[in-house]
Amino acid sequence: MNWQEVEPRIQALKPGIGLVETRILGVLCAAYKVGADVQRIADLTGYKTGDVHDALTELRNKMLVMNKLVAERDVLRALPGAEPLLKGLLVDQLPAIEALSQPNPSPENKQMEQEFCKCGRPARHRGYCKGSRGKASRNSTTTQHAPAATIEVSGVSFRVYCETDGQKYEASGSSLPQFNAAMSVVERMLGA
Predict the structure, then answer these.
(1) How many other C-beta atoms can be found within 10 angstroms of the C-beta atom of residue 64?
(2) DSSP character at residue 122
(3) DSSP 3-state assignment of 24?
(4) Which of 49, 59, 157, 161 is 20 to 30 A away from residue 181, measured at CA?
(5) Of the CATH numbers 2.60.40, 3.30.70, 3.30.160, 2.30.40, which one belongs to the domain with range 147-192?
């Protein structure tokens, strides 16, 4: 596969980006295909190993590359609508540039609508609860927007993303104490 054929497809998905950002996204796509290894990406793309290392560092700072394997959802966060391109990379058959269209907004970024009781627990929970006045009553439901929270655990590393009431929190790590600390922040944000 000639990697120079991949760059125009990346630019078709994100019109107006420069060469540097195109190459960074190219490194992300290459990491999806062969893993986040500097030498293997350099061999596949033809980029200099120093440039690949710098691109991987930037992608790690953006939390798009967490370990040696890159998930499809992480590539799609940076390059929405790239499903045909990613499938083509895996089978060494790139889609036509015309086949790549502008993506729809990602549904995972939308907040779910869920019913909650006045006490803050999910609607239709069992028993009595204390409503807004602190007095026990049968549960009555109200509709609120549930906060968006994503927790990914792979092997010995994790990544947490939580968004609620305009606050955003992102954390990643590879130890149980780091995970527990991140979860306590998320619990405080969610009011659990």
Answers:
(1) 22
(2) B
(3) helix
(4) 59
(5) 3.30.160
